[in-house]
Design a protein that fits this description.
2 copies of one chain form a homodimer. Chain A is built from 15 helices and 18 strands. Chain A is of the alpha/beta class. Chains A and B meet through helix 2, helix 7, strand 12 and helix 13 of A and helix 2, helix 7, strand 12 and helix 13 of B.
C-alpha cells in the first residue's frame, strides 16, 4: 500500500511559499516530516512567475525544480500534493480547481479563495476523492481549522470572538497605549512592515471578513461568504474614543464575531468596546486570538502570531504532512465544509447590543434633553453620560454616552435623527459594546 | 471499503465516561458525529463496576448494553473502538493492552496510564497496526495532543510553560486576590468541588507531572516519565509570598515547564514567580493554559477549562471520531510517540534561574551581611532586598531578597548554609523566578 515517496508541487515563491520551500529543502526538517508521515516527502516542482526568479532563494534552488509554465507544472510526474501559497483570488482559484480535478490533494494558505470558494473547492475535492487543507489561511501558525474540524466536532459552537488581523490590532494597541491617533499609528505600522502601503484590506476589516467567513462556515456548519458579513473598519476611531473607553473600563478592539442560535447566525466585523479585564483585551500588538464557546468545551482561546513567513509555513507544512498521510492511506475528502440546510444569516439591523456614542454639540442648555428625546422615541435607554467641559477653541461641548442594549435598527434611525438636530455639530463616533466574558 | 457502522465499547460510567455515554446516546450529537465520520457510530457495550449500576444514568441505559464482566465486554462482537475513562493506573492499563492486542483502536482520558506507559501502549498499537488517542488526558477539552502531533509537527519546540492543574490554579488565584492562606483557599476549593477530600495529587504537583510527561514526550520526541520530572507542590506558599510577589511585580503560579536545547531537556513542576504582565499571569481560577514556543510558530497559547465532565467528553468524542475514521480507512498507529535517541534529561541541580527568598531572622545588626556572605561564597548575587520592620510580637525581622540568575545546586547549598546561621530563625520560602515573555 505504501508509496516509496510523496511528491510536492509548490506554487509561489513569495513570503510564505519561500519559507515553505526552505523547510522542504532542509534535510533535518524533511527527515522529521518524513518520519512522521511514514514515507519520504520530496519537493518536485515549484511554479514561479518571472519576477520570482530574481529572488535570492530562487538562486539556491535546483533550476530543474523551477518552472514559470503552468502546463509544465501540472504535467510534472509524481506530484501528489499541490501547495498553493501565491495569494489572491486569481489565478490561484483556477490552479486549485485544476489540481483537484487532476486528483491531487491540495494545501493552501489562501484565505481569499477559501473564503469565497471554499464550498466549491470542497465539493470538487469530494468528487475527486481527495483532501483539501487550509490551516494557514487563518491565524498563521495558530491551530484553528483542525481544532474546528476535529477537536471541537462534538460541540455546538455558540460563539466566536476573534482578534484575527494583526495589522489593526497593532494599530489599536499603539492608539491605546500611546494615545496617538489612527494616522500616526498606521504610519508606524507601515514603517515596521506590519501594514502595507495600501492598508485598505486590513484597516477596513476586509481581511478579517475572509477569515471570519472561513471560521464561521466551519463552526456553524453552513456557508458564510465574505459578502454575508457586516464589515466596518477602524479608521473612524480617534484617540478620544480610547480615552473615554479607558475611563469607562473598556478596551477597544476590532473583533470578528460569529454567533449561533437555534435557527440563525450573525456574523460581523467591527470595532467594539470589551471589558478591559477579559483575556482578549490583553491581546496586544500583532498577535491574534480566537475565543470559541462550545456547549461542551465551554470557553477556549487560541493565541499566537497570525501572520509572517515562519508561523504561516508552520501551518502549511503541518497540512502537507496530513495530506501526505491521506495519499498514503488513500483517505478521501472528509466532511469539513459540508454545509447544513436551514440556517439563515440575520441582518445586522436585528442586532441587539449596547452602544457608546460620542457627540460634539453646541454649548447651550437643553442639548442633552434633545439627545435623550431622540433616543427615547427610538426606545433606546441611556445608561450613563459623560459631559466634558466646553472646548475653549471651538466653543463646542462634547457629550459621551453609553446606552442599555438596543436594536441596531433603532440605533441607526436615532443616529440619523441626531445628526439632523440643529444643536448637533457632529456625531464623532459610535461603537458597539460586546458583552463577552 | 466502508463499514456500515462502527461500534464503541465504553469502559467506566463515572464523570467523564458518563458524559461520554450521554453524548453517544444523544441522537443529534450522534448524527453530527456519524456525518462527520462518514458512517454510523454506535455505542455497543459499557463495562461498569457494580457500584456504577446505582448511578441514575445506569437506569437510563438499555440494560443489555451494560456489563460488569470483563470477558463479556471484550467478547462483544463489533466493538471497533474501546474508550477507557475509568482513570487510575490499574486495571485500565491492562484493559488498554488487551484492547490493542485484540486489534481495537483505543481512546483514553487516562493521564496516569499514558504518562507512565504511553510508549509501551504506542508500541503495542504499532504492532497491531491500530491507533491510540488520548486528547482528554491533558487539559480537558483544550486541543493539545493533536496540535503537538499535527499542527506543530514542523517545529522544533523550544519550551512549554503550562498552567495545567485547575485545582492549584484556583487555590493560587484565591490566595492572590483575597490574601488568604493556603489552607483557607484549599478549604474553599474543596467546598466547591474543585479539590478532592485528599488533595495530595493536585497540591503536591503530581497530577501536573503526569500531564507534563505526556506533553514533553510529544513536544521533544523523547520519553519523559513522571519520575523524571522535578516536582514541588504549592503547600509551602503563604499569603506573605503573594504580597511580596505583588510588590515586586510578579504573579505566583504553579507551572509545568519543559525546555529543550540541542542535546538535553529539562522538565519540572514547581511554583514560580512570573512577570505580572504576561498572559499566563492572567489565567485565573480553574482555567488551564499551555504556552508553547516553536522555532517556526513562535509563541502560541491554548487556553480553556482543563477538567470537568463536559470539556473532557468534548475531547473524548473528538478522539472517537478520529479513531472511527481510522477504522474506516484502515489507518495505522501513526508516529506520535516515537522517541528519538540522544536526548538526556538534565538534573535539576544544573538549572540556572533567579530566586526569591523570604527569611525570618533575629533582629540585630549585621544579619544582612551574614546572609550576603553565604550567598556570595556560593557565587549568588543579590539583585534587591526588602527588609520589613520587626515583628513586634516575635521580635524577629523579615528579609526578602531577589537574586540574579544562579545555579540551583549553588542555591541549595546556600540554603542549607543559611539555615545553619545562628541569626536565622527560618527560611520562610524560596521560589524560582521564571523568565517568560
Amino acid at each position: 500500500m505504501k508509496k516509496a515517496s510523496i511528491g510536492i508541487g509548490l506554487m509561489g515563491l513569495g513570503v510564505v511559499a519561500g519559507q515553505t520551500a526552505r523547510i522542504l529543502l532542509d534535510r533535518d526538517k524533511v527527515r522529521i516530516l518524513s518520519d512522521y508521515v511514514g514515507t519520504q516527502i520530496e519537493l518536485r516542482k515549484v511554479k514561479v512567475i518571472a519576477a520570482d526568479l530574481e529572488r535570492p532563494l530562487a538562486k539556491e534552488i535546483d533550476p530543474r525544480l523551477l518552472t514559470t509554465d503552468e502546463e509544465d507544472f501540472f504535467n510534472t510526474k509524481d506530484i501528489d500534493i499541490v501547495v498553493e501559497a501565491i495569494g489572491g483570488e486569481n489565478p490561484p482559484f483556477g490552479y486549485l480547481k485544476r489540481a483537484l480535478r487532476s486528483g491531487r490533494r491540495i494545501v493552501t494558505s489562501n484565505k481569499e479563495v477559501i473564503a469565497k470558494h471554499g464550498i466549491e473547492l470542497w465539493s470538487l475535492a469530494q468528487e475527486n476523492n481527495v483532501s483539501l487543507y487550509y490551516e494557514a489561511s487563518v491565524g498563521g501558525g495558530i491551530p484553528l481549522i483542525m481544532p474546528f474540524q476535529r477537536d471541537l466536532i462534538a460541540n455546538r459552537i455558540n460563539s466566536i470572538h476573534a482578534i484575527i488581523n494583526g495589522t489593526t490590532n497593532y494599530i489599536l494597541t499603539r492608539m491605546a497605549k500611546e494615545g496617538v491617533d489612527f494616522s500616526a499609528a498606521l504610519k508606524k505600522a507601515q514603517e515596521l512592515g506590519y501594514a502595507e502601503a495600501n492598508p485598505r484590506n486590513d484597516v477596513e476589516g476586509i481581511d478579517a471578513t475572509y477569515k471570519l467567513a472561513i471560521l464561521a462556515s466551519l463552526a456553524f456548519h453552513c456557508q458564510v461568504r465574505p459578502d454575508d458579513i457586516y464589515c466596518e473598519g477602524i479608521t473612524k476611531l480617534t484617540s478620544r474614543d480610547f480615552r473615554y473607553a479607558s475611563e469607562l473600563g473598556f478596551a477597544v478592539k476590532l473583533l470578528a464575531i460569529g454567533k449561533q442560535d437555534d435557527h440563525s447566525i450573525q456574523v460581523r466585523v467591527h470595532p467594539v468596546f470589551i471589558p478591559e479585564d477579559v483575556l482578549l483585551a490583553e491581546v496586544d500588538g500583532v498577535f491574534n486570538a480566537v475565543q470559541v464557546e462550545g456547549d461542551l468545551v465551554g470557553k477556549v482561546i487560541f493565541y499566537g502570531q497570525g501572520a509572517g513567513a515562519y508561523p504561516t509555513s508552520s501551518a502549511v507544512v503541518a497540512d502537507i504532512a496530513s495530506a501526505a498521510k491521506d495519499v498514503l492511506y488513500a483517505t478521501g475528502a472528509g466532511s469539513g465544509l459540508k454545509p447544513e440546510a436551514g440556517k439563515h444569516i440575520r441582518p445586522m439591523s436585528e442586532l441587539v447590543t449596547s452602544y457608546y456614542l460620542r457627540m460634539e454639540t453646541a454649548d447651550q442648555p437643553g442639548v442633552l434633553a434633545q439627545i435623550s428625546q431622540v433616543l427615547g422615541t427610538n426606545l433606546i435607554s441611556i445608561k450613563s453620560v459623560i459631559q466634558k467641559e466646553t472646548n475653549a477653541e471651538t466653543g463646542h461641548a462634547e457629550i459621551v454616552l453609553m446606552t442599555y442594549p438596543a436594536q441596531e435598527k433603532a440605533m441607526q434611525t436615532a443616529l440619523s435623527e441626531l445628526k439632523r438636530l440643529p444643536v448637533m455639530v457632529q456625531v464623532g463616533n459610535f461603537v458597539r459594546v460586546e458583552d463577552i466574558k
